[in-house]
Amino acid sequence: MVECYYLRLLLVNVVGPRSFEDLRTVNGHLCATYREACEHLGLLENDACWDSSLQDASIVSFSHQIRMLFAIIISICFPSNPIELWNKYRDFMTEDFLIRMRHHTGNSDLIITLEMYNEALIAVEDMCLTIANKALVQLGMISPNRPMHDFFD
Question: How far does CA 135 lie from the centroid of its chain?
């Protein structure tokens, strides 16, 4: 669904494409996705403001507050690359799950696991469903593994 938006944006702004591959080609470079082509053409808003907001929040906010901010950003502001923002700030959004598991296991050397990232994704998706009635996959994100959530608890 999200990729259709980028395709439409290219169809409106690119003059004389002869194929869908032409739409993804910018200055002789074949982009992997329509979104990437839109970025290279300068058709998308820069995510710097969202990155800056999350960076500030990661310094002064708790994990659940950072997840809420991230959910608001991806649900309402539609950043051009939400996965990149997730990858950059996911450790901050997952820190409370790590602390909980360290306390539960008594192992202070425990590090963040894929299961903990999944828990954070589920929490973010639940917020996005509340805010905009949209799952993460509809917002250009990866979908959490909900059956893994049952195992984590």
Answer: 12
